[in-house]
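Changelog note: in this version the structure field was regenerated for every chain. One regenerated record is shown below for reference.
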Amino acid sequence: MIDVSARNLISMKTLLLSLLLSLALVSGASAQETIPLKNYFRELKQVEVTIQGQTYNFLFDTGGGETFVSPEVARKLGRTVYGRGTAYRMRGEQFNYQKADSVALQVGKVSFSPATVGVWDVMSILPEGLPKVDGVLSLKTFRDKVLTIDLAASQLTLQTPASLKRQRSRLTPLKSRFASGLDGNELTVFLEIPRRKHSYWFLFDTGNISELLLSHHTAAEWGLQNDTTSQRIALNPIALLLGNRKLVSQAAAESILYDGVLNYGLISQARFTIDFTTREVWMH
């Protein structure tokens, strides 16, 4: 027979266990997952990606549009390679690739749902002699997440609803566009750059490790060149207004498809959070 004191002790233990479990659940719901970015070549960053228990090195490129695995990786996975995708690089060069279905990626401790990826050998456009990379990790992988990009700290952070809520009041919203490519299968982000009472839209491209790029028409409209020649023109450093801050970068004018392309040097001067579920972008 249990006496009153024993019953009280059991009740207290049960209450304590319930409280600890609740705290653990709350902590888990608000926990952020940090993904380290490793140096690759100059400012290019790479990420460790696990597929079926095997670890690979992928380039991290926010301007890439599609997540790619190399043909070698697709063969190792036993995936059927099929179809044809067409994309354009920022200078207008067309390239074609194939696809593979049901590829599940794990980045850090986070597993992403199986998805269709592009099959293409990124080494074909990189300088000879560089270490092998097995694919490209693009923003498309994070299409149902909230991602913070901090290039200065060489890390990505996956936010939870709770962690984003805690930060929202301190973040500066940016006007943005989310683009899905020719066939609706890509994912890239453009940020508004206000200038001379007009809006210019610049590709958010961590893979651009050269200067901040302006199209010749943009440079001419900004009074930075006298014509729209197709030749590359080096420009003086430019300050761009993003949110309530001015970020400065070396710049050049080139024949490109967009108004402009942000580069690693400028993006690394701030932290950016992208909510792909609501299609919002903020700067820290």
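Spot check on this record: The mean pLDDT is 90. The longest strand covers residues 94-103.
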